[in-house]
Structure formats: C-alpha cells, structure tokens
Amino acid sequence: MSVHSPSEAQETARRLYDMAGILLPAAIRAAATLCVADRIAEGTTSAADLAVRVRADPDGLTLLLRYLASAGLFHRSDHDRYTLTALGDALRSDSPVSVRALLDSDGVLGRSDLGTVNVLHTVRTGRACHESVFGTDFWSDVQHDPAYAASFDTFLGNGVGWDAGIVIDSYPWDTVGHVTDVGGGGGSLLIELLHAHPHLRGRVVDLPNSVDLARARLVRAGLDGRGEAVVGSFFDRVPGGSDVYLLSAVLADWTDERAVRILRTVAGAAGPKARVLLAEVTMPRSGADSHDTASTANDLYVAATVTVPARTDRQLIAIAEAAGLRLSRRGPGSAVRSLLEFTVAR
Ligand SMILES: C[S@@+](CC[C@H](N)C(=O)[O-])C[C@H]1O[C@@H](n2cnc3c(N)ncnc32)[C@H](O)[C@@H]1O
C-alpha cells in the first residue's frame, strides 16, 4: 500500500464515497421513466408545467430537475425553466442515440438493473436479485406492467440471438408438422422458423403481454395463417397437439426445481409421441484472467440478474430426466447454445 498524506487519503476516501453514490443513477432513471426530456424538447420548460405533463409532484420534480441540471443534463434558467444539454438530449425518446428506453424503470432492462441494487443478495446467496427486491420473479413482475410489452418490443426487435441459427437450420424440421414455442416471447424465433421452413406451422405459448406482441408480429410478417400465439403459463398447462415443444432460452431464468416443474408441464402436453427440444443458452463468463471493468461488471451483472446463467448439457439432461424425459438427440451446439431433444420416458 502506498503512503498518502492525510489530505490525499481524505480525497481518496471521498472519491470512493462518490463512486458508491446511488442517487445520481436513480435520478437519471427517474427522469428517463417520466420522459422529462421529451416534454422539454416539446417546449414545456417550467418545472411547474413539466410536473403537470409528467404527472409528478411539483416539488419533487423541481428538486429532481435542479439536481440533474447541476449534473449537466439540463440548462437551468431563472424561475426553474429548463432546456436540454447535449447530455440531456440523449434522454429524448427520438434521439438517434437515445438511452431513455434502456433506463426506463418500467422497461425490461431498467427493471432488471434496479434489482442489482441488492447485489449483496447475490454475493451472499449466489442467487439473482430480482425476487429479493421486488418480491416476485422477473417475468411475473414485468407482465403486470402495461409498459412492459412496448419495452419488450424495443429490446427484442425482430431478431433472434444467442446463435439461434442452430435451432433454425440444424434441426430436422422437415420431420415436423407443428411446433409449439413454449415461452416464445414476442414470436421472433417462431417467425424465423416459419420463414425458413414453409411447410411448418406453429404457435407461441407465453404470458399475455408477450402473446399480444407475438400476435401482432405474426400478422405483420404475413404468417398468421400458419402461426398463432396463445396465452398460457408453463407452470400450469401447455396445449397439446404439436410434434415438437421447443424451449429456447427459457430454463436459465428458473431454479432447478422450477425448471423441472416447467418440463413436467411440457412433457404432459407432449405425451408419448411428441418431442421436447431444449435450446438453452449459456452465458459465458470472461474468466479469472479478465481484469477490465466492462467484463468483470458484466459477469457480476449476469449473476445478479439471471437465475442460472450457465447449465451444462449434463445438468440440463438431469433436469429433463427428473421431469420424466429421456434424451433422444443431441446437438449440434455452440459455445452459447445447446440443442437437446427428449421424448417422454415410458
Ligand atoms: C428469456 S425469454 C426467452 C424468449 C424466447 N424463447 C427467446 O428465445 O428469445 C423467456 C420467456 O419466458 C416467458 N415466460 C416467463 N414466465 C412464463 C410462464 N409462466 N409461462 C409462459 N411463458 C413464460 C417470458 O414472458 C419470456 O418471453
């Protein structure tokens, strides 16, 4: 340890204290959630008028605006009137470099970020934070929020990730007539599958907000004749009648016990004839050699937000077997995606 003068030591301690501050991030996120920058850009500049437009307490909003002006997001003029600085401009929804939706506390990522305030929970227990902060699991929580569907749309876009090409191209879909994408979200993967395999029909089963989104997307893609989206919880019941029940990037959000429950429900829908296709993702860690802030932060963030970020094939097979399934086909996989097919054990 190097020797510091008392004033240097004090300065260092202050720097550390500032680093640990949570008010500024929380205040920026409050402004993002309330769309304050959008209203300012539209010409509402006084704190009192802004409070009316964003439905906030006038005094509370005034304090927020003054604080964020001091932090460089707004220019503040006399009588608490505000305009956007270059920094604040990035909080406009329609800025080409907008970060508003990312920071929206009612949105998918913003909500997930808020859970990390209790990263102590992850450190103590090894478990993700969300339930410890909000009292309910991430997906049930966000499903109750009407802003969620829109934010889901923004973040998932129309694409599929995590080497999903393996699922689309490397499985013998020519042997499948109908697929159910269980927890299929906004329908992106089903849409890609239906485009790639014109004989295929399918359905998404998910919670209501995701289903609304998937329905709208199927219509936009001109695939509503071959694809549908139905509301259902994989803890209760999944409709029967498909040849394949696909679960893509679903089990990572659940403990082993709940993952077994999900697969039991799916096995019940599959019956003796259908196949259950697990296309799970593994979120890789940057590893012990990594020292930079971005990758070490990412490792901690994933641990704090995803229930089981990485399961080996062996662990997935054990969970499936506990749910009464038997491995019938394996792979191909990639570094981040596995492909395991099961049938109901007799
Ligand atoms: C990580 S996303 C995966 C989405 C999609 N399968 C993919 O590969 O991108 C998990 C999905 O599970 C859905 N989900 C969560 N709880 C559910 C439940 N109880 N029943 C059905 N779907 C659920 C979520 O709404 C979300 O769409």
TrEMBL record:
PROSITE patterns noted in UniProt: SAM_OMT_II (PS51683)
GO molecular function ontology, one term from the record: O-methyltransferase activity
GO biological process per UniProt: methylation
Cross-referenced Pfam families: Dimerisation, Methyltransf_2
Residues of the O-methyltransferase dimerisation domain: 20-91
Keywords: Methyltransferase, S-adenosyl-L-methionine, Transferase
Residues of the O-methyltransferase C-terminal domain: 122-325
Name assigned to this protein: O-methyltransferase
